[in-house]
C-alpha cells in the first residue's frame, strides 16, 4: 500500500467517525434490509453510449447506477448492502436507514455526497461537476427514530447530464413544497420510492409526481411486487406503464416518451 493510499484511507476514516456514524439514531428496520442483500448483483450491458445518452441501471432498493457517455458513473443511495458491481465516481447517500448510506464507502470514489450535514449545523449543500455530469442536492426533512422531524436530514439529488435532468427523490417523507419544486427545476426522469409507509404514502407520492411532471418515472424502494402493483393500480388512470425485461434503460432527451410514462425495471 502506498503512502498516498494510506493517507486517503486515514482521512476517510476520520470523516466517517465524525459524520457518517451519526445517522444511526435515525434508523428503523425495513423489510428485506439485511446483509444478505450484498449478494444481489445484476449484470450490466457495456454498450457504448452516444453523446447525451444516459444509462440507468436499477441495482436494487434505492440504488441506481447512472452512467454517462463520457464514462462518469454515479451511484444513488450508496450503502453497505446493495452496491453496483463497479466502483462509481460519485456516490450520493441519505441517512434515513442504513440501506441508504455507507459507513465505509470505497476510498476510490472521487466524490462522496451525504444528503445531510455531518456536522449537524444545517442542510447539506452540494454542487459538483465531474466530466459530463453535474450533481446537486435539494434538502428535505425526515422522520427521526422517535417520530420527530429531522429538518434537512435528507436530500433529493439532481443529476444533470447533457440535456437531461434526473432527480432521485431518496427517502422522501413529505409532500414537496413550491420551494422544493423550484430548486429541482425541470426534471426529465424521476426515480421515486413507492413503499408507501417508510417513505411518503402512495397517494402523496402520486401528488409529488404530478407536480414534478417528469416524462419518465421509474419506481424504486418497493420491497416486492405486491407493493409495486398497488401503486401501479393507483396510477393506472394517470400514466401508461412500460415493464422492461432488463434492469437498465438507455435514454436521451431525443428518446424520451412523448407522454409521461412509468417505466418499471426488474428488481426490488
From TrEMBL:
Annotated signal sequence range: 1-26
SUPFAM superfamilies named in the record: Metallo-hydrolase/oxidoreductase
UniProt xrefs under Pfam families: Lactamase_B_3
The entry's keywords: Signal
Descriptive protein name: MBL fold metallo-hydrolase
Originating species: Bosea vestrisii
Higher taxonomy: Bacteria, Pseudomonadati, Pseudomonadota, Alphaproteobacteria, Hyphomicrobiales
